[in-house]
Amino acid sequence: MPYQDPQQDPQAAQWPPPSYAEPQQPQPQQPQPQQPPYQHPNGQQPHPQPQSYGQPQPQPQAYPQPYGQPQPYGQPYGAYGEPQPYGQAHQQPYGQPYGPPQAPFPGYGQRVKQPWLVPPRPGVRYHHVARTAVHRWWRPIVGTLLILAYTIAAMIVLLIGALIINTMINGGTYEAGSGDSFFKNDTADLGFQLAMLAVLLPSVPLAAWAVQRRRPGTVSSVAGHLRWKWFAACVGLAILFCAVSFGFSLLASGLVPDTSSSDGPETWVGWSRFIPPALVIILLVPFQSAAEEYVFRGWIIQAIGSWTLETRKGKVGRAFSLVFRTPWPGILVGAGLFMAGHGYTGWGMLDVFLFGAIAGWLAFKTGGLESGIAIHVFNNLMAFLLPAAVGKLDIEQGAVPWQYVVADVAPMVLYALAVVWLAKRLRLPTTTPAAALATQPASAAHNVPVDDGMPVDDVVPVAHETAARQEMTGAQEMAAAQEMAAAPNDSYRTAADSTPPVSESASTPHEPGPYG
């Protein structure tokens, strides 16, 4: 066959011709010896070793490609099917494998958002509940100012509403009553006075949440809420107290000469005159009494109890610290303020003070306000309903004979002893539960003693580890991450990781009963 130029005859370029071509036999691939990968001293993934000329490049394991199929020019390894700009090279930091970017080491370089509400320390009594991990000396003061501001604002709003109602009733003109009367109606005036005190009730939970960063229910009890079953048991004892107190009052009235200037004996006013004020009393007295308990027994005792002065040095400082770690400063201050809020004089002041002190002591012994609220509600119901039955809606305050003080205090002492006995019999928990450890930071679970109300060297834990991690620089984060990667999985353990869990018996002196 004569020679033909390939440029003139295209079929001549194929040699040998297709009809005479012999089939090609595939040559077996010789396995290439694999070299062991280089191990970095710190255990990190080394930079990929360069391959010799002619050897196929290894493909990423996350996105495998057929053997020998080349990648498009300039396209880096990445997500399958994801378009890449022309000529852009895949940039990976030294020692990092191909694949999705690795997240930074948890806890380093990330500002972890802490929850607003901080649980109380486990195993503490009622007066130390407010001394949480975020306690500062100024929080009780700011909380008290918030309660005062809320009270003033609520009373102003209530006063404006009363003026509007008075004007609407009187046909567009305001007509004030004589003396202390505001509506020229005894029932309306009594309701207004009780409402002025009842508006204090939301102020204490608000201050606990907004200022002290704790659950509002921790003011009610160490359980974090009002223990309704235990409250029902205290109500039963309070009803017995009312019966005993009424009997003691009858005995005292026989020992005190009658100096009243009334024209005749007091008589029943009838149901038509008794039912309206009775409804107002029954509806508002529970809120009025509970508000006073939350302010004078709840907030005052816990606010002063959070100042333990445990960091004070010297003889004087340590002496004050021994006193302020007990519940008695809060109990006495709360009872004194409670006495100042009433208009009694002489022996009557002692009567009110002892009532507040006994209610505060019960809050400490039972771990909550349930017993104090129960006795306060039924004492005030009896104090308002009995005079209302004879037509007296204005409670007369002032001097009180000592016989009436004894007749009032003696049943209260019996009630307090019965409450403490029943709480022990029912094994009522009087300290915060140990379950609070589950929500505490890891570094805050150390050195948490059981608080029995006596002077102890209790230390308020603070999450130092979290704060230290938040202050780390970028270089420190990289060094810490390399150290963690080089260490074995179970060799890098902090003190918090090796701390044994706190048992139930080590944090709560009483087993939980049915009223927990």
TrEMBL record:
<feature type="compositionally biased region" description="Low complexity">
    <location>
        <begin position="1"/>
        <end position="14"/>
    </location>
</feature>
<feature type="domain" description="CAAX prenyl protease 2/Lysostaphin resistance protein A-like">
    <location>
        <begin position="277"/>
        <end position="382"/>
    </location>
</feature>
<feature type="compositionally biased region" description="Pro residues">
    <location>
        <begin position="57"/>
        <end position="69"/>
    </location>
</feature>
<dbReference type="GO" id="GO:0008237">
    <property type="term" value="F:metallopeptidase activity"/>
</dbReference>
<feature type="transmembrane region" description="Helical">
    <location>
        <begin position="322"/>
        <end position="340"/>
    </location>
</feature>
<dbReference type="InterPro" id="IPR003675">
    <property type="entry name" value="Rce1/LyrA-like_dom"/>
</dbReference>
<feature type="transmembrane region" description="Helical">
    <location>
        <begin position="141"/>
        <end position="165"/>
    </location>
</feature>
<feature type="transmembrane region" description="Helical">
    <location>
        <begin position="190"/>
        <end position="209"/>
    </location>
</feature>
<feature type="transmembrane region" description="Helical">
    <location>
        <begin position="230"/>
        <end position="256"/>
    </location>
</feature>
<feature type="compositionally biased region" description="Low complexity">
    <location>
        <begin position="70"/>
        <end position="97"/>
    </location>
</feature>
<feature type="compositionally biased region" description="Pro residues">
    <location>
        <begin position="15"/>
        <end position="39"/>
    </location>
</feature>
<dbReference type="Pfam" id="PF02517">
    <property type="entry name" value="Rce1-like"/>
</dbReference>
<feature type="transmembrane region" description="Helical">
    <location>
        <begin position="346"/>
        <end position="364"/>
    </location>
</feature>
<feature type="region of interest" description="Disordered">
    <location>
        <begin position="1"/>
        <end position="111"/>
    </location>
</feature>
<dbReference type="GO" id="GO:0080120">
    <property type="term" value="P:CAAX-box protein maturation"/>
</dbReference>
<feature type="compositionally biased region" description="Polar residues">
    <location>
        <begin position="496"/>
        <end position="508"/>
    </location>
</feature>
<keyword id="KW-1133">Transmembrane helix</keyword>
<keyword id="KW-0645">Protease</keyword>
<protein>
    <submittedName>
        <fullName>CPBP family intramembrane metalloprotease</fullName>
    </submittedName>
</protein>
<keyword id="KW-0472">Membrane</keyword>
<keyword id="KW-0378">Hydrolase</keyword>
<keyword id="KW-0812">Transmembrane</keyword>
<feature type="transmembrane region" description="Helical">
    <location>
        <begin position="371"/>
        <end position="390"/>
    </location>
</feature>
<feature type="transmembrane region" description="Helical">
    <location>
        <begin position="268"/>
        <end position="287"/>
    </location>
</feature>
<keyword id="KW-0482">Metalloprotease</keyword>
<feature type="compositionally biased region" description="Low complexity">
    <location>
        <begin position="40"/>
        <end position="56"/>
    </location>
</feature>
<feature type="compositionally biased region" description="Low complexity">
    <location>
        <begin position="475"/>
        <end position="487"/>
    </location>
</feature>
<dbReference type="GO" id="GO:0004175">
    <property type="term" value="F:endopeptidase activity"/>
</dbReference>
<feature type="transmembrane region" description="Helical">
    <location>
        <begin position="402"/>
        <end position="423"/>
    </location>
</feature>
<feature type="region of interest" description="Disordered">
    <location>
        <begin position="475"/>
        <end position="516"/>
    </location>
</feature>
